[in-house]
Specification:
By secondary structure, this protein is an all-alpha fold. The radius of gyration is 21 Å and the shape is globular.
Length: about 240
């Protein structure tokens, strides 16, 4: 992010943070996939409210607490765990605990709160990459969180409309199987991608997804390894 972009955010005040929160949620495919998994088999309005409120409560707690106290974790690692949370919710939807492990599944509501805490830590890590004014820090965080919730409501509305259409169809059963296995594969792919990024660099903004940038990252790693080997051989020769 350039200095000009940072200044634009600061000048925009809390509305800027609200907007960034909403757009981050609407473009955050990992959070969206997780929410999609949560509501997949929920048909009653009160159940949808209960489980989405649990997720909202979880991610709001860590988003506000971690940002306000400056607690940061590695961006790639926390996003890798978030990717696995997508696998978890899809595995639970497929009744995988009973079918494949022969055990009773953990309480879903408690798991969603716990996984929501992890999602909130990921959101906080992203927020702390933005310029934050210490004088208005709490309002900046609350504005960002409100933006997150607005984005979540918009995404949730679209998902529920799509799900309502499919539930009436005879294709819902194959659709549910394909969707939940698809969520597992998507989660695993995101996990591998984040761990791959973690092995390369520490700053997420430097991670290039184009093949050209990717090749250059590997060339850079090879050069660093070669330089280390030469340095070690020279050291051995002197000894």
């Amino acid at each position: 992010m350039s200095e000009a972009e940072k200044q634009t955010i600061i000048d925009g005040g809390n509305l800027s943070y609200l907007w960034i929160g909403a757009t981050h949620m609407l473009s955050g495919y990992d959070h969206l996939l997780f929410i999609f998994g949560i509501i997949f088999f929920l048909t009653k309005f009160k159940d949808i409210i209960k489980y989405i409120t649990a997720f909202t409560l979880g991610h709001s707690v860590t988003l506000i607490y971690a940002t306000f106290n400056g607690i940061q974790v590695n961006y790639f690692l926390i996003d890798a765990i978030i990717a696995l949370s997508i696998c978890y919710i899809a595995f639970a939807n497929l009744d995988g605990f009973k079918k494949y492990l022969g055990i009773k599944p953990p309480n879903l509501l408690l798991m969603i709160i716990g996984l929501g805490l992890i999602h909130g830590l990921g959101l906080s890590t992203r927020l702390q990459q933005l310029p934050l004014n210490q004088d208005t820090l709490l309002m900046n965080i609350i504005s960002f969180n409100i933006g997150i919730e607005l984005g979540q409501v918009i995404a949730l509305t679209i998902m529920l409309l799509v799900m309502a259409l499919f539930r009436r169809s005879t294709l819902f059963e194959p659709f549910s199987l394909i969707s939940n296995y698809g969520l597992i594969f998507a989660g695993l792919f995101l996990f591998i991608m984040q761990m791959h990024g973690y092995s390369h660099i520490t700053n997420p903004d430097e991670f290039g997804f184009s093949s050209d940038n990717h090749i250059h990252e590997h060339i850079k790693m090879d050069e660093e390894r070669a330089a280390q080997v030469i340095k070690n051989s020279q050291h051995d020769s002197i000894e």
